[in-house]
Design a protein that fits this description.
The complex is a heterodimer of chains A (about 160) and B (about 400). In chain A, about 30% of the residues lie in helices and about 20% in strands. Chain A is built from five helices and six strands; from the N terminus they run αααβαββαβββ. The longest helix of chain A is centred in the N-terminal third of the chain and has 13 residues. The relative contact order of chain A is 0.14. Chain B folds into two domains: about 150 residues, Aspartate Aminotransferase, domain 1, CATH 3.90.1150.10; about 240 residues, Type I PLP-dependent aspartate aminotransferase-like (Major domain) (Aspartate Aminotransferase, domain 2, 3-Layer(aba) Sandwich), CATH 3.40.640. Helices cover about 40% and strands about 10% of the residues of chain B. The radius of gyration of chain B is 21 Å and the shape is globular. The chains are: A alpha+beta (about 160), B alpha/beta (about 400). Chains A and B meet through α2 of A and α3, α12 and α14 of B.
Amino acid sequence: MTDNILSLLESDARLTPEQIAAMCNKEVGDIRKMISEYEQTGVILGYKALIDWDKTDREYVSALIELKISPQRDRGFDRVAELIYHYPEVQSLYLMSGSFDLAVMIEGRTMREVAYFVAAKLATLEDVVATATHFVLRKYKDKGVIYGPAVVDERGNCL
Amino acid sequence: MNFDYEQIIGKTVREMKPSGIRKFFDLLEEMKGVISLTVGQPDFVTPWHIRNAGIESLVQGKTYYTSNAGTLALRREIATYLDRRFGLQYDGDHEVIVTVGGSEAIDLAFRALLNPGDEVIIPLPAFVCYEPLVRLAGGVPVIVNTREEDRFRLTADLLRSAITPRTKMLVLPFPNNPTGAIMERQDLEAIAKILRETGIMVLSDEIYAELTYGKRHVSIASLPDMRERTVLVSGFSKAYAMTGWRLGYLAAPAPLCRHLLKIHQYAIMCAPTTAQFAAVEALANGDGDIETMAAEYDRRRRYLVNRLRGMGIPCFEPEGAFYVWPNISGFGMNSEQFCEKLLYEYGVAIVPGNAFGDCGEGFARISYAYSIQHIDQALTKIQQMVTDIRTKK
């Protein structure tokens, strides 16, 4: 049941408590209560739309930046991660296994803006040993959704 | 020379009525901005690993005819699948024929089994193909009307009342399009008890077998003494969202298959090769896809039924396929009037129940092969119409 509500909302955050209740044969009140508990305990952190900015006029670039870090003795990577994720330009931040330590996804309006952010804000952090910036040339799929032409219902009417 | 084509066309086909719903669908296609809940096919795309298996077969140049009955690999995979999912024992080498959709399998069975004048019992409401195909094969359709109070199942009494000395076959279209009715083991047992006393053959159309909710589908062929009198028809369209691949199959005793195969061999040659390769992948690795899609249909089903009942529209609880079958007789209109009003004035399309037989009058078929948001938009408009009708009264 718990998984059910969460996976329903994960696949479509617009579902209303009424809809979820009807789909699961539950009382709306119970569903509301569960959702608000998830929100209060931070299991559900937010609801967002997936937007393909390439289909709009807005200028938009994103980049993946690999960071090598020399971790601090007492706080490991957490302190430096904190210094990074508070920047609104940072869309996501992961601690990685392998040849680098932190993967930072940055969004900006122009390449220059992103490059400036890396040079001025990331590379200058005391614990950052090296950076490698990879600009995204094209987004094919994100959060399980394929970025392409809108899907048109072309099914024939057969009984 | 001036041809009078009406006279040239053979009598049987001349008298065959075009599907009554065509007119409605043509209308629908001309209108813009209509929210449709009419289609009888999944909204899912065929799962990628299955599509990819089809593509891979093309890359490898597998563009030939297969053997008439279908590739041995596929037939054996079908036999394994029928055993795994429904406890049915068929020999893939001799008892399975791969066809162009389930529809071809139905046509084959009628053509192979019927002599002129043989009667075929067809429970309605049902998919529209049985009656015309029986006539085309020279048979005589005998309609029995299932009832809402029986949850649209075929009862022993209904069956008994339709049997005559000329009865050759019984069609069992369950899980049912359009009602969503299923037949449980005890329902089938009651039918089987009658059939055992007769020589009547069964055409069991189980195309929706994987789409049942809460209860597993039971095939009549799994009941004692039924396998030898059953032609089981199924396919890939509904379970794996593969309608466009045109692939179905039938399973029947070998001595029957030998004859059915002759028609298939002359009229069709073999089912599409690319689709056959994709289907092997579907059967071997697609059980998870079935579960995922069925779970999604189930959520939509409950949502639709709950909403419709919430509007005060009586709605039988469908347990299979992807349709709900609300009773709309309480609005002072017949099914067509109701659906036309909904279409013209509220921009929502559903199928009038009489498209599936006269006994469908008073009902409508709503497909939930659509996203929940799409269904929700349509329901909001249906709610409006219901409210408008009631407040005017």
